Amino acid sequence: ANLALQEGRLEAAQTELDNAQIQLDEKQMELDQVQAMYDTAMKEKQALLDDAEACRRKMNNATALIEGLGGEKLRWTASSKNFQNQIINLVGNVLLATGFLSYSGPFNQEYRNLLLQLWKREMDNSKIPYSNELNLTGMLVDNATVGEWNLQGLPNDDLSIQNGIIVTKASRYPLLIDPQGQGNIWIKNKEKNNGLQVKS
């Protein structure tokens, strides 16, 4: 009788256990679903945080760029005005440069400056615009080329650099009257790699 009673209790307990296991499985499934939803939400949250951080970085970079460009505005405005003046004065500047290349070769520095002043006076009379602060040397040759010429033996004074410009830029062949031999040394060094032939 006791065995039957205990078996009845065991069966009831087993039924309760099965019911509890079913409930546990259901709750576990719900928990898994909620956990999956939580994981998805956390991934979305992390993605949003990453996007927000990337956006913040881009915004900081854009702000820095805008502030940097704001500082450049004055320089660009001045450069634009300068370029506009260069365009207006281009014809006169080119006229002075070509006159220098064509006619200044035989003369010393003083007479070259006098020629330039006379040409400017004529251009003023003819209302041809030109730059008052025009630097013919800077217009016709860059500093790197002048530096290379100096390394090749050309002296660094204005007259020598102007002579170097005339030798390299003029369309006619130059005749160098060169008592100190500086031009001779410079041309030999300059044209050494171009198959220069020297005849006496």
Descriptive account of the structure:
Helix 1 (2-103) crosses helix 2. The termini are far apart. With 200 residues, the protein is an all-alpha fold. The chain has helices spanning 2-103, 109-125, 136-140, 143-151, 158-169, 182-190. The model has no long low-confidence stretch (mean pLDDT 90). The protein has a domain at 135-192: P-loop containing nucleotide triphosphate hydrolases (Rossmann fold, 3-Layer(aba) Sandwich), CATH 3.40.50.300.
Write the layout of secondary structure elements.
Blueprint: H1 2-103, H2 109-125, H3 136-140, H4 143-151, H5 158-169, H6 182-190
Helix pairs in contact: 1-2
Organism: Nyctibius grandis (Great potoo)
Domain Dynein heavy chain ATP-binding dynein motor region: 148-198
Pfam families: AAA_9, MT
Annotation keywords:
single chain; 200 residues; Rossmann fold; 77% helix; 0% strand; DYH5 protein; DHC; AAA_9
In short:
With 200 residues, the chain is mainly alpha-helical.
Cα(first) to Cα(last) distance is: 144 Å
Poorly predicted parts: none
**Mean pLDDT score, rounded?**
90
CATH topology of the domain at 135-192: Rossmann fold
Helix content percent band: over 70%
Q: Looking at the structure, what is the overall shape?
A: rod-shaped
User: So, CATH architecture of the domain at 135-192?
Assistant: 3-Layer(aba) Sandwich
SSE topology string: HHHHHH
* CATH top-level class of the domain at 135-192: Alpha Beta
Number of distinct beta strands: 0
**Total of helices:** 6
Portion of residues in beta strands equals: under 5%
CATH superfamily membership of the domain at 135-192: P-loop containing nucleotide triphosphate hydrolases
